[in-house]
Structure formats: C-alpha cells, structure tokens
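Minutes, project check-in
Item: structure for the 298-residue chain
Input as provided by the requester:
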Amino acid sequence: MIEVRHLRYFVVLAEELHFGRAAERLHMAQSPLSRQIRQLERDIGVELVNRAHHVVGLTDAGQVFLGAARIVLDDLDQALYLAQRAGRGEVGTLRVGYVNEVTADLLPLSLKAFKDRFPDIEIDLREGTTGALLDALRRHQVDVAFARSPGIVDDLDYEQLIQEALFVALPSGHEHLAWERPIPLADLAGEAFVMPADQAAPGVRRDIDAACAQAGFVPNIAREISPHTAVLLLVAAGVGVALVPASVAHSYPVPGIDYAQLSGPPVTTAGMACNLLTGLGVATEDELGHVETKHGVE
C-alpha cells in the first residue's frame, strides 16, 4: 500500500538525484531511504529510478510519477491547510440573525470589522424579531444574533454592546411638539401607547414598561404590534404614541411622525447572543463584539 511518506521521500530524491543528499534533507539514514523507495517501486510494480552508486536518474515511469506525486502532495497540503483554518474558524459560513432596527449602526460596523479579518468566511444574514432569533439560536439555525435587549437568556451567551436613549414617536402636530424641549415621560401618562409585542421584542418591551413605571404610570396600551416599523405606521395613523430606541428615531423617518427627546431619558440596549453549547470562538466574538456606534457604546 502506497503511503504519503513514500511519495514525499520519492519527490525529495527526484529533486536531489542523490541518496545521500536526499536522506540528509529528510533527516534519516541513507539505507532506510533506499528501502522505502524500493518498497514504493514494488507497490507500484515499476522501477522509478535508475541507480548508479549514489547518483540517481529517473526512469520514464519515474518522470511521469513525479508529476502526479507532486499534485497529490500539493492537494493534501491544501486540504490540511483548509482543515486547520476551518478548525480555527477562518473559513466556512457564519449565519447571522438580526433585528431590522439594529442594522442602523451596530450590525454594519460589526460585520465590516469581522470581514476585514476573516475575508474567506461567508456571511448568511437572516432577519427576524428578537424572540424568533433567540429561538433560532436554541435550535442551532443561526450562529449569532444581533438583537434588542433580550432580557433573561440564561441558556444563551449574551454580550451587551450598546446602550441608547428611548425617544418618543408622536403623530405630526402633537401638542407636546410645540414645547421644543425634552419631554418628561410622566407627561405622556394620559396618552394611548402603541407597544412592541412582548413575545417578539421582550427586552425593549421590558425597558419601556420599566421606564413608564419609574415615571409613575402604567401605559394605556392601544395596540401591540411588531416590528418597530409597524409600530411607527400606527403612530403615523394617529393610533397613539410610542417609545423607540434612538437609532430607530434617527434612521427611520416616517411621514406623519415627529420624534422628540425625553428628559432624563430612559434607555434600552442591544447586543449579540450566541448559543452556549456552540459558542463563536474567541476571534469571532472579538471581531463582532467591540465596535463603536453613533448612539452610544456600552
């Protein structure tokens, strides 16, 4: 049976055309090298070298075999190289789930930093709500998810990346817009609210509920809906007001809506989650997890 080491021995011998020099390059004695070449010839069934003392010439069969042996060794080396890179997380496909509103700053900067370091890794993007993405992580359908504050995720590895203020989205012409100053959240206690659905956006909903509770009221919920784009459309239709992350206010202008700052602004967060059982590897977390955004860094 032909072994890889026999091919390497033969290629070195063919390059040196001298048993002594070939043995020295291979860090072995000359006699074992000669025996291994003889074994290779027996396995193939033809002579590969013409021997004249220590000087070697290749037979016609040896010349043909040399080219083929080099191809085999090159292919093997390439296969080993690719396998090692895959083992280090440098090749393959990274399945990235994301909440649409997070793409404003966080995701583009993170993916750019990652792609600069690992250009050979394909990135497969999958959009969803925070709740759906966390479920996809648990089912190993995505490798990493960029999501709004997910709340308690004991079974997942979550790293908070940004903290940003909540803004209030108001129908154009709303009386509070005439103040031209940050609005105290308590002043919105009598308003109808359009809220993100708890199942789809548990973290943002928790942050909004907590902010309203701190301001001394429970919001009067007119509608619950997701994603944020649907929330904004209902605000524009006059259904109610909504609290949205600052990045949404900056990145999603909607006709019929004006955004206003809140005084002593409550905050919400966004970050990156991955499955504890699979992880991402240190390099991947470093590249995806530390970027600055326009709306704040945590």
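Outcome recorded: Confidence is low (pLDDT under 50) at residues 279-287, 289-298.
No further action items on this chain.
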